[in-house]
Amino acid sequence: MSELRELYQTVILDHNKNPRNSGTLEKPSHSADGNNPLCGDVIHVTLRVEDDVVKDLRFEGVGCAISTASASLMTQAVKERSVSEALELFDDFHKLVTTDAPANETELGKLVVFAGVREFPVRVKCATLAWHTLKNALKGSDDVARTE
Ligand code: ZN
């Protein structure tokens, strides 16, 4: 088992068991819903953005281990970042899980463990659901983020 693969399993298990920033914010400035019908993952993301910085965010949802762990890691990665940084991180993460192009690993940090899902297109949708939902929320879109 490769080191990244081992790390992947450890991180996914940890964040699935103890999701960080789970729940909903009382008075969110932004929110959005996401749905991945292929797997049955659903998510609701709430954010508090102040002075263009994501001061706080929470997620709640029902889904597989990958979608839950990805949402949990996303909340950690995006907190205290500016909106444009958060959207850049979305692009970096999306590139990481969908292409072989070198990703910005320094910015991605722990998120690099998801690199392995690119071999499993169905799992890519699980891993990116929270991110698509975040992007919709930040862009003020009322559309339900769909992976299909
Ligand atoms: Zn899933």
Fold and architecture overview:
The protein has helices at residues 3-17, 65-78, 83-98, 105-108, 121-138; strands at residues 30-36, 41-50, 53-62, 145-146. The protein has 148 residues and is α+β, with helices and mostly antiparallel strands. The chain has a 4-stranded mixed sheet, covered by helices on one side. A hairpin with a 2-residue loop joins strand 2 (41-50) and strand 3 (53-62). The termini are far apart. The model has no long low-confidence stretch (mean pLDDT 93). The site of zinc ion has 8 residues, from helix 2.
Strand content: 15-25%
List all distinct small molecules, including ions and cofactors, that are bound in this structure: zinc ion
Terminal residue distance? 32 Å
Strand order of the largest sheet: 3-2-1-4
Number of domains: 1
Task: Indicate the multimeric state.
Answer: single chain
CATH architecture name: Alpha-Beta Complex
Point out poorly predicted stretches: none
Q: How would you classify the helix and strand content by structural class?
A: alpha+beta
Helix content: 40-55%
CATH C-level name: Alpha Beta
Q: Can you give the mean pLDDT?
A: 93
The total count of helices amounts to 5
Sequence of secondary-structure elements: HEEEHHHHE
Query: What is the alpha-carbon Rg in Å?
Result: 14 Å
